[in-house]
Design goal:
Layout (H helix, E strand, L loop, with lengths): L1 E11 L8 E3 L1 E5 L2 E2 L5 E4 L5 E2 L11 E6 L2 E5 L5 E5 L7 E5 L2 E6 L2 H11 L4 E4 L28 E5 H13 L33 E3 L10 E6 L2 E10 L18 H7 L1 E2 L2 E10 L8 E4 L3 E6 L3
Length: 298
């Protein structure tokens, strides 16, 4: 079955676990959108650090200056610029599928650490082909990804978000399910207004027709580029952090657990990887691009 939809928003995250940016267009590379999650954070031991553990990372954001440079900004208007440490020495890191990355200069690490209150090191993924998409997450031989979780791009639909917000409003008076995992919640408060779709940290937002129809999509064509669905996206505590106030809460995990939980996880969105795209190609997707999908037969 094929239907035509439309891209309504595109978002990139130059630094993993920082706030994201809306963009009007983005070049697509075999491992994801250009400039998306090539930077990440580790602790002194090289262990991957994300906003799952340090929520206030979401209070920083990075702008792309050029192909090798980003500018990191805090909420008070201060900023620092860092260029990719090309061909510099690497350090051991603990990202799944990637055991070494290149650290940023000490002054950048100190700038970030001072604002977060935790000693952190900013690192760069020099070779985006070095981190394979795990087979258990739908990866095929030769497919790789940036420092993103599990897949190169994340797609969500506005139709599914509307349905989720309707569920949240309708279920407010219901008690919490007794088996909610405390590690999936960041606070005691429930949502008092509709949630913003950016909580799910998508790359591609599509208007959508039927809520959660994307679960069954096999392939998706956005503009001129075809993508393959690798896996549904399971959701974690990061979605419960308000992206504006950084306050924690229970939603959307509380409600997803009632309506969208199986295999012990809650689900929202799909992971995509480009099909037949070489690193030499320069092809963009844009806001308002047509989106055509082919669904698996049921």
């Amino acid at each position: 079955m094929t239907r035509e939809l439309r891209v309504t928003r595109l978002r990139t995250y130059p630094v993993k676990s920082f706030a994201g940016n809306d963009v009007q267009s983005a070049a697509v590379e075999p491992w994801g959108l250009a400039g998306d999650r090539r930077w990440g954070l580790v602790d002194d031991a090289g262990k991957n650090v994300t906003a799952r553990m340090v929520h206030h990372l979401l209070g920083l954001h990075a702008d792309i200056v050029d192909a090798t440079t980003i500018r990191i900004n805090d909420r008070d208007g201060a900023s620092i610029t860092v260029s990719a440490p090309i061909n510099a020495s690497t350090i051991p890191v603990g990202f799944s599928g990637l055991d070494r990355a290149t650290p940023a200069p000490d002054e950048v690490n100190s700038w970030i650490s001072d604002r977060i209150g935790v000693p952190l090191r900013l690192v760069w993924q020099q070779d985006p082909t070095a981190r394979p998409i795990p087979e258990k997450h739908g990866g095929l031989p030769g497919e790789s990804l940036s420092l993103a979780d599990d897949g190169p791009l994340l797609l969500v639909t506005e139709a599914s978000m509307r349905q989720l917000n309707e569920w949240i409003a309708a279920d407010q008076a219901l008690p919490d399910l007794p088996d909610l995992d405390p590690d999936d919640l960041s606070g005691a408060a429930s949502a008092s207004k509709p949630l913003d779709i950016v909580r799910f940290r998508p790359n591609v937002i599509v208007d959508g027709d039927v809520p959660f129809a994307e679960d069954a999509w096999n392939t998706v064509k956005i503009g001129d580029i075809t993508f393959r669905k690798t896996v549904l996206c399971d959701r974690c505590v990061m979605t419960t952090i308000d992206p504006k106030t950084l306050a924690g809460g229970k939603e959307p995990i509380r409600t997803l657990a009632r309506h969208r939980r199986w295999d012990g996880k809650t689900w929202f969105g799909i992971r995509l990887t480009p099909v037949g795209l070489s690193k030499e190609q320069v092809t963009e997707i844009r806001v308002n691009d047509d989106v055509n999908y082919h669904s698996e037969s049921r």
